[in-house]
Design goal:
With 272 residues, the chain is α/β, with parallel strands linked by helices. It has three domains: 1-31; 33-118, Ubiquitin-like (UB roll) (Roll); 143-270, Cytidine Deaminase, domain 2 (3-Layer(aba) Sandwich). The protein is 30% helix and 29% strand. It has nine helices and twelve strands. It has helices at residues 54-64, 83-88, 110-113, 121-129, 143-155, 158-163, 187-200, 218-226, 240-249; strands spanning 8-15, 23-30, 33-39, 42-49, 74-79, 91-96, 167-173, 178-184, 208-212, 231-234, 252-258, 261-266. It has a six-stranded mixed sheet with strand order 8-7-9-10-11-12, sandwiched between helices. The chain has a four-stranded mixed sheet with strand order 4-3-6-5. A two-stranded antiparallel ribbon has the order 1-2. Helix 1 crosses helix 7, helix 7 (187-200) runs parallel beside helix 8 (218-226) and helix 8 packs parallel to helix 9. It is flat and about 60 Å long. It starts with 7 loop residues before the first strand and ends in a 6-residue tail after the last strand.
């Protein structure tokens, strides 16, 4: 059954209950499709994502991979215009300025994201800190304001309301105003999209707060550090490595930010 929303697919399901007979019903699902990212014509990553905001996703990915640092590093980001990739619309070409050097040997997204990557604990943290130093911004925010942000992000999740199948990430000002939010089947993709949005618009994120609708992982903290974001708030729990990374990076990490309470695991000096 077709739908006009490219982020939503419809399907038929058999609904079972403990009382009564099974019923055939229609359900909606969050769309998931692959996106290939190419730099100078060379494939560097394939990620499963929710279609939409692909330019932001590609830009955010490259920022957090330490490949690009300034808006002028990127000449153009565009969908592939030739061959089968052009028909599918699932390949992004990133054209960099001639002076930007790329070490393709280091371009492995899986390096920190996957549990099978071979890096763990202190080795992971030290490797990232060789590329990204700890944050310097020491701006303070009120606990009351920080606790209010997940509800503001929740209002900006229209596709989740329909499918229940997407993660969200949002960037907020230090005063608590939502500047951009994105939904995606991958929580790391949602973070890449908001970071990419800020990068393409030349927005300095050193005065921003990142809020995620799920848990805070090591990779989310790494991406935040790459973007120089000092404060991260998660609706659910952080992992142990995320906490250790935040402490070593001088980032503020708050978890279980729900209602009127939260747990501050690192950088408590910024929350008053």
């Amino acid at each position: 059954m077709p739908t006009n929303n490219p982020l939503i697919a419809q399907c038929e399901i058999i609904r079972h209950t403990t009382e009564g007979d099974p019923e055939t019903k229609s359900d909606v699902l969050a769309v998931e499709e692959p996106l290939e990212i190419r730099v100078r014509g060379r494939s560097i990553a394939i990620t499963m994502r929710t279609p939409g905001h692909d330019m932001e996703l590609a830009a955010g990915f490259l920022v957090t991979e330490n490949i690009i640092h300034h808006r002028q590093d990127v000449s153009e980001i565009a969908h592939c215009r030739e061959g089968e990739a052009a028909q599918l619309g699932n390949t992004m070409n990133v054209f960099l300025a001639p002076e930007v050097e790329v070490d393709f040997g280091q371009l492995t997204r899986h390096f920190f994201a996957s549990s099978s990557c071979g890096l763990c604990g202190k080795a992971s943290i030290e490797s990232v800190h060789q590329q990204f130093p700890p944050v310097e911004n020491q701006s303070e925010v009120s606990a009351k304001m920080l606790a209010s942000l997940p509800d503001k992000l929740r209002v900006a999740q229209p596709t989740f309301d329909q499918t229940g199948g997407l993660h969200a990430a949002g960037l907020f000002s230090m005063e608590g105003f939502l500047t951009v939010s994105r939904e995606d089947v991958g929580r790391h993709n949602a973070v890449d999209k908001v970071i990419g949005n800020a990068f393409l618009d030349r927005v300095d994120l050193s005065q921003s707060i990142l809020v995620v609708s799920g848990r805070a992982s090591f990779e989310i903290m790494q991406k935040s550090l790459a973007a120089r974001i000092p404060i991260v708030a998660a609706v659910s729990a952080p992992s142990s490595l995320a906490v250790e990374f935040a402490q070593d990076s001088d980032q503020t990490l708050a978890g279980f930010v729900r209602g009127k309470t939260m747990n501050v695991y690192a950088g408590a000096q910024r929350v008053r």
